[in-house]
Amino acid sequence: MENYLSFETGIDNEDRVYAHRGDIFICEGLFKPLDDIEKNDHIIGKPDRPVLIISSDENNINIVKVLPFSTKSGSFDSNSITSGRVIKVPGIGNNPNSNFIDVSQIFTINTYQLKVKLGRASQEIVDAAVALHTLQNIANASSVNTIVKIFKDKYPKAQVFNHPVTISSNGCVDGQKMFMNNMYDPSVDLFTEVKQVSIEELNAQIKNTLKIPETKEDAYELYTEWLSLGTDIFRNKYGLSRQQYITLRDKCVYKMLGKIANFKKHDWSA
């Protein structure tokens, strides 16, 4: 090629955002290996645990704020370490099982700790996670008033504070759109792909039939079911006491160890 293409502009030397709000990464150096977790640890472990970036892109040059994922649902006991797993999302990457975002365990990490990108969550999911994390840190109704005032001052044109309504009064033409500060419920417009399901509704869909694992396949079937339901719903489904659940789990683990590819003892540990 005798001639070359000459560009007068197009090279940008400014820092580019590596991590975006909603990105899902495996991070390094954040979570302990399961074998290193001590009795009094209340922070979840497992080094290859995915995290969701919730901080805005403009702040993601050097550090990011993240929430962890878990394949196991949380406990309904508010004092449990897993009680913050309140958002259920589809499987990440090649994992077909559902995942749960833990909104209670927020971390600030360096961007260089983000090693493998697995995917991206919708902004709708991120917004829900941020909202529920904030809700966990609200003390009382007075706190709500303070937070709403701050948000209103920061984003006065937000739809939640200025819902368009149709009125016909004070000489206004019928059908005219006017903005009123009436604090409407935005749930009709938000969470278009989210279904809120109560524990009562979940339990109503469950049949109480206990399966005793006779083979590794039977054990693996129970294991995958436990992954999908989480410990509390799994126990409730089969009417298991804590000791009965532990006995059943140990039998399943014994059946699968060394016989199911990539299955490790701590994979079913809760």
Molecular structure report:
The protein is an alpha+beta fold and 270 residues long. Helix content is 26%, strand content 17%. It is built from 6 helices and 9 strands; from the N terminus they run βββββββααββαααα. It has helices at 123-136, 141-154, 199-204, 216-229, 231-238, 242-256, and strands at 23-27, 50-53, 63-70, 85-89, 99-102, 107-110, 114-120, 163-167, 176-180. Strands 1, 2, 3, 4, 5, 6 and 7 form a 7-stranded antiparallel beta sheet that branches. Strands 8-9 form a two-stranded antiparallel sheet. β8 (163-167) and β9 (176-180) form a beta hairpin.
> How many DSSP helices?
6
How many beta strands in the DSSP annotation?
9
Strand content: 15-25%
Rg: 24 Å
Q: Low-confidence runs (pLDDT<50, min 5 residues)? A: 165-193
Total of domains: 3
Residue share in helix: 25-40%
List the helices and strands and how they pair.
Layout: E1 23-27, E2 50-53, E3 63-70, E4 85-89, E5 99-102, E6 107-110, E7 114-120, H1 123-136, H2 141-154, E8 163-167, E9 176-180, H3 199-204, H4 216-229, H5 231-238, H6 242-256
Antiparallel strand pairs: 1-2, 1-7, 2-3, 3-5, 3-6, 4-5, 8-9
